[in-house]
Amino acid sequence: MMTILVSQMSILLLLLLSVTTFHKSMCSNHTLFSCNENDRQTMLTFKQGLNDSRGIISTWSTEKDCCAWKGVHCDSITGRVTKLDLNNCFLEGKINLSILELEFLSYLDLSLHKFDVIRIPSIQHNITHASNLLHLDLSYTVVTALNNLQWLSPLSSLKNLNLNGIDLHKETNWLQAVATLSSLLELHLSKCKLNNFINPSLEYLNLSSLVTLDLSWNNFTSPLPNGFFNLTKDITYLDLSVCHIYGEMPSSLLYLPNLRHLDLSYNQLQGSIPNGIRQLEHIKYLDLNKNHLHRSIPYGIGQLAHIQYLDLSKNMLSGFIPSTLGNLSSLYSLSIGSNNFSSEISNRTFSKLYSLGFLDLSSLNIVFQFDLDWVPPFQLGGLYLAHINQGPNFPSWIYTQKSLEELDISSSGISLVDRNKFFSLIEGINNLYLSNNSIAEDISNLTLLGYEIWLDHNNFTGGLPNISVGTDLVDLSYNSFSGSIPHIWTSLEHLFYINLWSNRLSGEVPVDLFDLKQLEMINLGENQFSGTIPMNMSRYLEVVILRANQFEGNIPPQLFELPLLFHLDLAHNKLSGSMPACKYNLTHMINYDRYYYAMVYSATNDAIELFTKGQEYYLYDVSPNRRTIDLSANNLSGEVPLELFHLVQVQTLNLSHNNLIGTIPKMIGGMKYMESLDLSNNKFCGEIPQSMALLNFLEVLNLSCNNFDGKIPIGTQLQSFNASSYIGNPKLCGAPLSSCTTKEENPKTAMPSTENEDDDSIRESLYLGMGVGFAVGFWGICGSLFLIRKWRHAYYRFIDGMGDKLYGILMVKLIRFRRN
Ligand SMILES: *[C@@H]1O[C@H](CO)[C@@H](O)[C@H](O)[C@H]1NC(C)=O
Ligand SMILES: *[C@@H]1O[C@H](CO)[C@@H](O)[C@H](O)[C@H]1NC(C)=O
Ligand SMILES: *[C@@H]1O[C@H](CO)[C@@H](O)[C@H](O)[C@H]1NC(C)=O
Ligand SMILES: *[C@@H]1O[C@H](CO)[C@@H](O)[C@H](O)[C@H]1NC(C)=O
Ligand SMILES: *[C@@H]1O[C@H](CO)[C@@H](O)[C@H](O)[C@H]1NC(C)=O
Ligand SMILES: *[C@@H]1O[C@H](CO)[C@@H](O)[C@H](O)[C@H]1NC(C)=O
Ligand SMILES: *[C@@H]1O[C@H](CO)[C@@H](O)[C@H](O)[C@H]1NC(C)=O
Ligand SMILES: *[C@@H]1O[C@H](CO)[C@@H](O)[C@H](O)[C@H]1NC(C)=O
Ligand SMILES: *[C@@H]1O[C@H](CO)[C@@H](O)[C@H](O)[C@H]1NC(C)=O
Ligand SMILES: *[C@@H]1O[C@H](CO)[C@@H](O)[C@H](O)[C@H]1NC(C)=O
Ligand SMILES: *[C@@H]1O[C@H](CO)[C@@H](O)[C@H](O)[C@H]1NC(C)=O
Ligand SMILES: *[C@@H]1O[C@H](CO)[C@@H](O)[C@H](O)[C@H]1NC(C)=O
Questions:
Q1: Using the 8-state DSSP alphabet, how is residue 22 labeled?
Q2: Ligand 7: residues whose CB is within 6 Å?
Q3: Where in the chain is the domain with CATH 3.80.10.10?
Q4: Element (H, E) at 482
Q5: Which of 59-73, 175-189, 289-303, 571-585 is predicted least confidently?
Q6: How remote is the CA of residue 96 from the centroid of ligand 2, in Å?
Q7: What are the pLDDT digits (tens) for 713-764?
Q8: How far is the CA of 98 from the centre of ligand 2 (A)?
């Protein structure tokens, strides 16, 4: 797992570095000999298509010597341009691939830009001189889809091609196009929306030089053609994860004797893992030619002698887990979790896996036969054993693993642990997932050193544990922790997520707790905390849940000035006084940035799709798509400040069971996203404003037990609720309550004027809403990483190895987005 972690970290670091230093290092200068005039002209033509309004390549005209231009490298003897590296410079405009005409160019990196289109020289326009190009990286450059890859064909020297993230769904013959590149060693076509393996002339293709092939995150929606791997005999790295591949694992996979990295995760592969010729025993007629079997498969998967990384997780593979798997003594990372195997698995399977560092067996519906005193031949860095019925005993062999950094053994029915061994094991683990077991230990004397601590849904007792300064996420919800929050927690400056929901905690909350520098989500609900709500708040707070405690005193106005807040739940406390009279400056609830979240979601689209396919587990209930204010069941009194009704994006508003007075302002009609409105059990009075009929999304309405009077306004929505939404208001009448005897005589005189007023105030509230939004600005919302981190964390749990990919993509998108 170390290397996986390292690779994740390095991607992050790279991305972060690229943000901070791209001006300096990525577009480095090289002062060399004066350059060739042809090269100079070609590059100037290239520049013409670009929009360099930020002057990133301004040296491309000011400097006379083009070898000194940003990103340009020349041969020191001939002065010809050999290398052009503009990666990560965030240029915009149109990229003209006639830049490939640079005669001696061997290295071209234009990755991470935002070009509208690639202008491809027509096939007649010969790129005759481009045969020197060895390295071409255009990953994540172009927004629009590319029609074809024919322009690649003259680049016959190409060894390394990276087109990740370029939309190639229109190119129906990509395999043919890349197969013309006979020198190709590395091919990266991840996230290209490729949708077929169709090749009219598969036999004539020769990709035998290929060593690295990354086709992950595409949409093939087909089985893997068996002959496909015949093309790539020397391959060492093959990534076909998240490709919508179904059917059986092709046996041709086993003829890749040099394979070191095989990732087929997140597909719909069926059938069994090839386990050698023995599994064919019952087959009466075997046409080896048709299957391109040219040798027998004595050891099945065990034949991949050099394999180090094998990920078959998240498929529908069934049958036996082949014993020959245990022959793969070079194996470092083995993931076969989330499949439908039917056999048992025992320590014998692992007896030769000396090199194993990462093991994922989670969500396997099989019997585990590990001897109690088994000492594995390996030391794991990461172990994923979630959703396997291991309990009630914590598997004792795990105690022998002294370098575990990640452990997920959630949902495994564990209640019994060897206390001392267990304590010393969990204290040091970086990412600790023990959720949803029945562990009932007192861990108050422990200091947990992890970054992420998930102990939710257990029976832990005693005081809260100490947590180290490095921790950024702690979920201890649904346990029996008692006592108060240790003051030391207020120094945890990396903490962004605290969930203590449903414990037996009490006492006052440390005054600085809400003021942790990074805090985004705090959930202290369903405890017995008392005292007042702290006044100082982290300005990154997005979620505050204090529901069902004994908090008293006033609601601090600071809560209504948090620009990113989208979920505020203070219900069922003893809060009193009136609601704060301040500028309700909750930008997210006024000006929810659909574009931003749409952008983030589009990046996570595949992810969400994967998630919702039955992988969902402890996804947080709160989401920026559900903007909520719940202050119900307190002792709040006085009028509701008009400011509250400026929060036009709120979808759930619950003020019920308080002592609030006054009328519902007409501007409530401007809260047009409202889905659930509960004002019941207060002392509101006056008429229900006609504008409420404008709340088209309203699904839940409760105005009962107040002093409303007059006629319930006519509006399809308002009449669709039954009487219980309105009862307990003796002076209220009209459908669905009994009809109004007095007022019905002159309904016309009352209506028009109220409608006009309503229109005005609605307009006013919309206008105000926008104004505040502009003032506070949009970057605040973009500063929010809650969602992204949430996905990242969720990813570590469920898509484990995949987190880096997603996070990388997200970061790229975000960085680009912020740049613009
Ligand atoms: C160049 O980019 C800037 C910033 O993205 C934009 O404001 C400007 O309109 C663009 N100019 C052209 C000519 O596209
Ligand atoms: C691309 O550049 C070449 C010259 O290098 C020029 O002839 C061609 O017209 C350009 N294509 C477009 C679409 O601008
Ligand atoms: C492209 O090259 C071919 C053969 O090398 C030649 O016949 C053709 O005329 C060239 N086309 C152009 C537009 O230069
Ligand atoms: C597979 O490779 C063998 C030689 O290694 C060749 O004879 C055969 O035709 C190839 N099959 C396909 C479908 O490319
Ligand atoms: C494929 O190309 C390599 C050299 O690039 C050559 O040695 C090999 O024989 C070719 N294979 C076939 C089946 O054409
Ligand atoms: C994937 O391909 C299938 C069938 O070709 C299509 O129905 C589906 O919409 C595609 N999915 C995406 C995300 O492009
Ligand atoms: C591979 O495993 C099988 C079954 O466990 C065993 O019979 C065979 O000898 C092993 N081969 C090697 C090379 O270790
Ligand atoms: C899993 O395998 C069992 C039989 O072993 C079968 O009944 C079941 O349908 C399979 N489930 C899936 C999702 O393939
Ligand atoms: C919790 O664990 C049990 C097994 O102990 C499992 O059946 C259940 O599905 C798990 N709950 C969740 C939400 O994963
Ligand atoms: C915690 O440590 C204190 C002092 O060492 C000891 O008295 C107490 O029993 C310990 N609590 C638990 C639950 O181990
Ligand atoms: C809140 O923060 C301010 C400034 O950081 C500090 O002066 C004040 O004492 C804090 N209040 C509380 C209650 O901690
Ligand atoms: C919103 O709140 C911030 C921080 O409290 C404050 O600086 C800003 O002036 C407020 N904006 C408005 C429009 O009141």
A1: I
A2: 299, 302, 323-324, 326-327
A3: 379-541, 548-751
A4: strand 482-483
A5: 289-303
A6: 6
A7: 987 778 889 889 999 999 999 888 888 875 444 444 333 333 343 433 333 3
A8: 6
